Structure formats: structure tokens, C-alpha cells
Model the fold of this input.
Amino acid sequence: MSEIRFTDQHEWVRVEGDTATIGITDYAQEQLGDVVYVELPEVGKTVAAGDEAAVVESVKAASEVYAPVSGEVVEVNADLEGQPGGVNEDAMGRGWFVKLKLSDKSEFTKLMDEDAYKAFVEGLA
Amino acid sequence: MIRAYLKALMSTDHDTSAPLEVTPLHALHIELGAKMVPFAGYDMPVQYKDGVLTEHLHTREAAGLFDVSHMGQAFLVGPDHATVSRALEALVPGDIAGLTPGAIRYTLLLNDKGGIRDDLMVTRTQKDGTLFLIVNAACKHQDFAHIEANLPQGITLNRVTDRALIALQGPKAVEVLARFAPAVATMDFMTSQDMDVAGIPCYVSRSGYTGEDGNEISVPADRVVELTKKLLAEPEVKPIGLGARDSLRLEAGLCLYGHDIDETTTPIEGALGWTIGKRRRTEVNFPGANIIMDQIANGVKRKRVGILPDGKAPARDHTEITDASGKVIGEITSGSYGPTMGGPIAMGYVETEYAKVGTDIELMVRGKGRPAKIVALPFVEKRFHRPATK
Done:
């Protein structure tokens, strides 16, 4: 059973066991526009919650993707390096960026759940 | 992450305390689903529903329609061409006197040190003694004040505030516009004519800022919505925002004022020496002429160049440029992804000894040196319409 949570910076994190998969939300990809480049961290790197975990770039701008939770990078989505447009096509699915081995599960439960994030985005309109 | 994106989009030097101005096409932009951003004091479309990438490629394949009504339009009026061109030549290094009726010239307003106050288009209209000027939106108020302050008796600057400006750009642009104004088809690049377009009195130029063939059209403000809707109804035409306008001009190697050229860069440093007329070089009577002529004779310390990153990571404005040893040798002034190039492209300034095409350099992106090369501009060959060679 997986659980998904969100940040106010429009990242999502899905946890299965002690593995956290991180990406940007559909709202975020929509705001960014066509993604033309993604820079991913090296496997083995340790990131703390709030650290820059990846970079996503549209034609005009670069944006940081922050790690919503702390952990060690165990896998990156290398498909995005050749096909960065995957972020636009399926932000919540095959457009994921990194997988972390969670170091503190309590960080996860403090994040917004799906309903809270939905309300947050509606509040931005 | 969205915050960073919005900040980047809004990185224009307008006074954020002043309310934004709008162009006569503002309501139409919103109706067309544009994403609006502040640019040069105006609320402008950065992209429409298709997005920057698609809009850019569409302009290179068919025809893109741009609202550039935020730019400054004015007539400079004197008794005859010789007198009015002499007055403008006191402020710019271009050969204005030598323009034939209907001809357009790209030139530069210079300060006393030879720095660039703005770049502009000057048209010699069919009416003797009348020049038509188009200047950048962000500079227009200071440009017009500067020109007025330096005019001799008998010459006046008339700001045009009742006309909008649109651009139709791309390989199909002229064909489309000729459906509404057949005379457009036979115009040469960098010429202008007054003509009715769909029955609306316009000033039509064959010119642009994309590297493509096309037209820029000055239209009465109260009829620009009507004309824009007619053009957008043609199957080849889509509306294009400022995002694609920027990536198109960068691929074409064209400067963006305030980024690639400014008060601290001279035409020689900016690789715009070609804009200095032959006669003007012998007369040495434009602002900063002594400094600029010395630079032509003895060289400059830094030069504007094209930069092609080896990898896929775009290097943005203000990225530091270093040599292989890590010594800082310059800075990027325009950096983006080039949709037609299918990868990152940039322009910037480097110390002259590194300016040669083929030189290896490094770009400091997120604290890491990334290999790149100096390349010739433009990135994408210009497809301007030239008269057949005789």
C-alpha cells in the first residue's frame, strides 16, 4: 500500500515501505510549460528535507526540485535525461525524478495529503 | 519551485510599484488563453495555450503573430530629409542621410562614451523630412526625452500613441499578409510602405526579430483587434508570446537590449560595428566617436560571441564563463534552450583572446564547470527576403 503527500513547493512524494519516490505535481508541470532538461543527483547522495534534489528546466527558466523528505538517493529516472518531456506527459507517474531511502518517516506524515494539496492549489487560482 | 520560475519570467527591469499598462490587444490575449506576465511595464503574453516550444517551432514552419504594441513609435519631423537625418545622426552612428525613401535601418542611440542607450529601427518614410522610429518598450520614455532634448530648432518628435504594432513572422508570413495587402509580396527586406491591410491604413515593414521573413505592421489602435482576428483566422497563423519571441531572436543571434547590449557596452564590443556607416566613420561625429574609432583601430578587451554548450544543460543569463583553468573570462548575457537547435544556446561576452570561433570554454552552472565552445552567430540561418542579385 503506497501513500502520497505533497509540499507547498508542488513536489509530490509517494512512500512504499522505506522508499520515497519524488516528482513534481501536474499543476507544477503545467505552470512550467515544456520541460527541456532535467538534472538528477548521483545515486548514493544524501539529501536533507528542503535540499535541492534535482533541477527542471523549461525553455525560459530553471527551477529547483526540493527533497520533501530526507534520505539517500537510491535510484534516479534516467529516462528523463533523454526524454525530459515525460515530466509534462505524466508528471505523477513516469515523470518521477528520484527515489530516496527514507531516513525519517515522520517528515513524510507532516506533509499535505491529497485533499489538503488540492485545496492549497485551488487557493492559488 | 514555481516561485523560481515566476521570478525568472519577471526578471525585467520595470518599476514594480507602478501599475502595469496594457496594449489594445490585452483582452484578446486573455480570450486566447495567454499566460500574462509583467514586461517593460506592460502586462504581456509570455505564451498562449500551445506553450513556448510549440509556438517557437510554429513560427519557423508557418507564421506567428506577435503583439509588440508596447514598443515606442514616433515620427521625427523636419523641413527635409537632409535636415532631419542630420539631427538624428548626431545621436546615432548609422547612415540615416543615405536612406532612400521607404528604406529601414537598424541603428543605436549612443551615450558620450560610445555606450548603447538603446537599439532602434529608423525608416525614411515617403514623406520628405519625416523619419519613423521604433524603440524598445523599456527604454521608450528616456529615449524620446533624450532625442527631444537634443533636437535643433525646427525639428520635432511626435510620439505615436494611437497606433498598435504587430509582427507576422515566419516562412508563410508574407504569403498570408499578401491576401489582405497584395503589394506586400513584392517588398524587399528592410523596406516599408504605407498601405491598406484588409482596408485598414497601416505602415507595413518587411522586417522582424526572429530570423525569419515577415512583416511588422503599425495599425491604428482602434482597429488592431479587427486586423489581428483576421490574421489569426488564416490557417497558417498562431499567436506567439514573448517566450518564443526571445528564443527565436536568440537563435537568430539578435541582441536583446538590457541583456546583450546596454550603456556599458559599445557597438564594437557588442559585435555591432557593421551598424556604423562608412561615411560616419570618416566624419567621426556621433556620440563617443573617438572612443569607438579607437576601438576599431586598436581592438577591444571583450566581445559579444555565440556560445554552444557541449551538453544538454542550458546556461542562463549571468552564468560565469571561465577558461579550462577556472579563470573567469566573461559572462552569459542571453542563455536559453533553442527549440530549433534542439539544445541549449547562449550569447555572452568574453575577453577578446577567447572570442575566436572554436575556442573551448567552460560555463559555471550550479557550481560546476561545463564544457562549451565559441561559435559563429546566428545559430539558425536567417531567411530574410533579399532582392535577386543583378
Summary: Chain A touches chain B at residues 9-11, 24, 28, 31-34, 36-37, 39, 55-66, 81 (CB under 8 Å). The helical segments of chain A are 26-32, 79-82, 86-89, 105-109, 114-124. Chain A has one domain: 3-103.
